[in-house]
From TrEMBL:
It catalyses: 2-phenylacetate + ATP + CoA = phenylacetyl-CoA + AMP + diphosphate. GO terms for molecular function: nucleotide binding; phenylacetate-CoA ligase activity. Pathway: Aromatic compound metabolism; phenylacetate degradation. Keywords: Ligase, Nucleotide-binding, Phosphopantetheine, Phosphoprotein. GO terms for biological process: phenylacetate catabolic process. Monomer. Its EC number is 6.2.1.30. This is Phenylacetate-coenzyme A ligase. Gene3D superfamilies: 3.30.300.30, N-terminal domain of ligase-like.
């Protein structure tokens, strides 16, 4: 029933005591980093201790901006020789955000992943296929080490190449797969093109879906298409990656692992806690990380705590599926995109005019990002070969920046519709 019974069903009072103990250690560790060591509030708590977990509200928030401004080593709290891995994701513009791990951190993360997958019913008898980007994306190695710790036979398939994904599933009898939900429509189409039905022609019984927002209706459609149970997996690189919050087999919200994180939900405008059960921005503090503790990280993800106890017996609170963001980031094919990144690329080019527009659409069951770019009149009148070269050049620059290939449409100046005098930057028409 549980991966770590004593921690997963810990009575709330004991869980809070454990949080307080771990927070004291975390603050002591964080204060060793050049960045956090500068905050008198942190140093004060390191010296005099914290009496109740609510006092965390006296500590400063950390934003993606802070991580980027202190790139690359500012938040590192350990000796570089003890750090064994980093993960990095792109920021709005300029420096990426980087998270460092020592061996303890990686073990702790793998354990949270194993715990999460176990809660969703995955067992060591399962054959697990990870259809997700490896490399710097945390979903690759994060799920990989978790599945190995759990004891599954794991297939590190990576993203892309749908035909090979299906062959792997059929050759080895994959029973569980981790997949980004928006890709499952495309995968299903390829099954159909091959004359196959995943319900009959695979041994899949469980899908773990996450890394991007999706609705309950989308989940039900996925369950129907593949004949499986699909469980929501939530995480973010700054808090390791996946393994932060996960659905148990009750499918009634995501348990957020409170022995590993302090969780707050705040009003993104007033920065004060919202009333219990109200939607706000998730703020998280690591409790079991040594190389790079992060304090009160503003995730920008909007959610709320769900009331009541879960029939599974786990005492860690549940959050509702993520309902939006308090910034303008969107996720395309599992890659985070800030419109400013695209603007940054376009505005460096002398041929590009004043306006651009990002259209997100589902074409043949595959999500695509179309970027309409106004070209200055003198260039727009240029020959077709020139425009073709410009289009390919912009495609490459945007792809290098956001990691997905955009469809670039070059358009005449003034042709992008304006909303109240301003160009509408992102239009999301994706099938949800
Ligand atoms: N996951 C897995 N495969 C995907 C995918 C996704 N989210 N989105 C598209 N693909 C597949 C496509 O279907 C295509 O394979 P096929 O033609 O055999 O069906 C292949 O990847 C390339 O697709 P394309 O549309 O040309 O992609 P791109 O160049 O714009 O992007 C990806 C390349 C998909 C590899 C890149 O976006 C990626 O790595 N996405 C996954 C990110 C991820 O894992 N995020 C989780 C972080 S925790
Ligand atoms: P990254 O740091 O690149 O792993 O991206 C993390 C972000 O992906 C989160 O802050 C969320 O916005 C989004 N995300 C991850 N998992 C989910 C999920 N299950 N539902 C909705 N959004 C998610
Ligand atoms: Zn539960």
């Amino acid at each position: 029933m549980y991966w770590e019974k004593e921690l997963e069903i810990l009575e709330r009072k004991s869980l809070e005591r454990l949080q307080l103990e771990r927070l004291a250690k975390t603050l002591g560790q964080a204060a060793k980093s050049p960045y956090y060591g500068r905050f008198p509030e942190i140093v004060r708590f390191v010296q005099s201790g914290m009496k109740a977990i609510e006092q965390i509200r006296e500590l400063p928030f950390t934003s993606k901006e802070d991580l980027r401004n202190n790139f690359p080593w500012g938040l590192l709290a350990a000796d570089k020789k003890d750090v064994v891995r980093l993960h990095s994701s792109s920021g709005t513009t300029g420096n990426p955000t980087v998270v460092y791990h020592n061996r303890h951190d990686l073990d702790s993360w793998a354990n949270l992943m194993a715990r999460s997958m176990y809660a969703a019913g995955v067992r060591d008898t399962d054959i697990f296929q990870n259809i997700c980007g490896y490399g710097l994306f945390t979903g690759g190695l994060g799920f990989q080490y978790g599945a190995e710790k759990l004891g599954c036979l794991s297939i590190p398939a990576g993203a892309g190449n749908s035909l090979r994904q299906i062959k792997l599933m059929r050759d080895f009898g994959t029973s569980v797969a981790h997949v980004i939900p928006s890709y499952l429509g495309r995968l299903f189409e390829v099954f159909k093109d091959e004359g196959l039905d995943p319900r009959k022609d695979t041994k899949l019984h469980t899908l773990v879906i996450g890394a991007e927002p999706h609705t309950q209706e989308h989940r039900l459609r996925i369950e129907e298409m593949f004949g499986v149970k699909a469980y929501n997996s939530f995480g973010l690189s700054e808090m390791n990656g996946p393994g932060v919050a996960f659905e148990c087999t009750e499918q009634n919200g995501l348990h957020i692992w409170e022995d590993a994180f302090v969780v707050e939900i705040i009003d993104p405008v007033t920065l004060q806690p919202v009333a219990d059960g109200e939607v706000g921005e998730l703020v998280m503090t690591t409790l079991d990380r040594q190389a790079m503790p992060v304090i009160r990280f503003r995730t920008r993800d909007l959610t709320r705590f769900l009331p009541g106890a879960c029939p599974c017996g786990r005492t860690h609170r549940r959050i509702e599926r993520i309902s939006g963001r308090s910034d303008d980031m969107f996720i395309m094919k599992g890659c985070n995109v800030f419109p400013m990144q695209i603007e940054g690329v376009l505005m460096k080019l002398p041929e590009v005019g004043d306006d651009y527009r990002i259209l997100l659409d589902t074409i043949d069951e595959q999500d695509e990002m179309i970027v309409e770019v106004e070209v200055r009149q003198e260039w727009f009148k240029g020959d077709l070969a020139f425009l073709d070269r410009l289009q390919r050049h912009i495609t490459r620059l945007v792809r290098d920046e956001v990691l997905v290939r955009p469809l670039i449409r070059l358009v005449e100046p003034g042709s992008i519709p304006k909303a109240e005098g301003k160009a509408v930057r992102v239009l999301d028409r994706r099938k949800k």
